[in-house]
Design goal:
This protein is mainly beta. The chain is 7% helix and 43% strand. The longest helix has 6 residues.
Amino acid sequence: MNGRKGCLGRFNIESPGEVNLKMSLTFGGTNEVIPVQHDLDLTIFDFDTSDKGMAEQITVTGINSWVEGKVKPEVNKDGAYVFTGDLTNINIDNPEDRYDLTPEQMNACVGLVYPTTEWEIKFGAIDTTNSGEIGGRNFMFAGRTLFRMRVL
């Protein structure tokens, strides 16, 4: 399940749970980070909630701006932006193509704009109903997408 599906990156985390990931844009075949030339887009797809109340969440810092569908951020005590899946977005279909999104998929996206080619994001799966259910939640991501292009 972890890896790539077309031009979309994807991974699965145990739920409830969280993982901190560092992402870097590097020159092909190297660990050399590409120098910053302009702001970079990162779109996180499929912010939804399972029918048992397991919601997807990310916590980010260092962004210049963001755009969202129905996923509004809160700012925590550390000044980080926390985006949590809207509880009315129940089991939204995963996108197949970053330029072909349904209105429901667009509402379940967050577009982040970074001034750097390296960033860290905390991805989490939150049990909003204390159901005690365990399982997994998928996260999908890409660079610039239809979502970001429509709101420019």
